[in-house]
Amino acid sequence: MKRTQIKHPAISSKPVLLLLFMLCTGFRLSAQDVDLFKLQDEQNKKEKKEKTDITTSTFKTTRLINGQSIENTGAGILDLKISHRFGMINTGAYNFFGLDQASMRLGLDYGITNRLEVGIGRSTYNKEFDGFVKYRLLRQSTGKVNMPVSVSLAASAVLRSLKDPPATYPINSSDHFSFTDQVLIARKFGDYFSLQLAPTMVHYNLVASKAIPNDLYSVGTGFRLRLSKRVNLTGEYYYQVTQFEGTTNALSLGFDIETGGHVFQLHFTNSTGINESSFITQTTGKWGDGGIHFGFNISRVFTVVKPKKIN
Question: Signal peptide position in this chain (predicted)?
């Protein structure tokens, strides 16, 4: 009987060796990639620690609503500001809910440096002239310099030019001056929320009687809440520690709307005055009975000196 031998296909050792080589090589490449990523992360962390990232756009403009924010006008930039407050809403339909009346402030702000800003203004309320200076003392930052907050110092002076009523005592021109000193402390919590605190002192050269202090103290606070890419909700409140009789705390709410590099501010406020001493210490309107104004701020900036020439 003839026996048939069944031949099995020959199994070559070359493909097996190649597969093992590829697996081993691929494994080594993956391990090398992981090491490269780790090294890159360490390098990024090291570079981040060696440089300082300054926080910007804590607020959208130099004014939160009525009051100063920690933001400054850029160096060499002139900012023309028009602030408008209509009459009180509770004046009714006869005054078209305040739109028949208005008070306004026309101002010019200028950035001497990126930290130092000065400004002047004229308000129809009490026919007041004002001037201010604001200096950015500290800037919120991370990295090599880690600063949790931004701090600005602001000082303003107001001259009331409204004619005085008849008085039994002589009134000098210096009696019409008032001065405001503020420390502005703010922090930006991510892209969506910023908060500011503003301890404030307002000094009047002349007050109605000896029982009334010349120096009035208050604490202001304000916020910015991002609602969308171009719209932010803003709020501002000043609590008066010492105050004139018949006045109340200033409360304002509004919206900042960004349109092509400009910011329009629309708001409601119980303050008629717009400069610091008038809106902080002379507010008489009350939200509860409709004693509020609709208003807006518009600014137009002009480059007076190009940044490369400022040093």
Answer: 1-30
Question: From CA 121, how far away is CA 16, in angstroms rounded?
Answer: 86
Unique residue bearing structure tokens 């404030």: 200
Q: What pTM was computed for the model?
A: 0.81
Task: Give Cα 220 distance to the centre of its chain.
Answer: 13
Q: Please give the structure tokens belonging to residue 62.
A: 């130099």
Domains, the chain, with CATH or none: 47-162+176-303 (2.40.160.40)
CA–CA distances in Å: residue 47 to residues 36, 50, 148? 16, 5, 20
Q: d(Cα 293, Cα 66) in Å, to the nearest integer?
A: 12
Residue 142 backbone phi and psi in degrees, to 5: -135, 165
For the segment 189-217, what is each residue's pLDDT rounded down to a tens digit?
999 999 999 999 999 998 888 888 999 99
In the chain, what are the helix, strand and coil shares in percent, each to the nearest 5?
20, 45, 35
Residues 6+ apart with CB under 8 A from 311: none
User: Residue 264, SS3?
Assistant: strand
Whether the CB-CB separation of 211 and 290 falls below 8 Å is answered with: no
Pair 295, 86: CB distance under 8 Å = yes
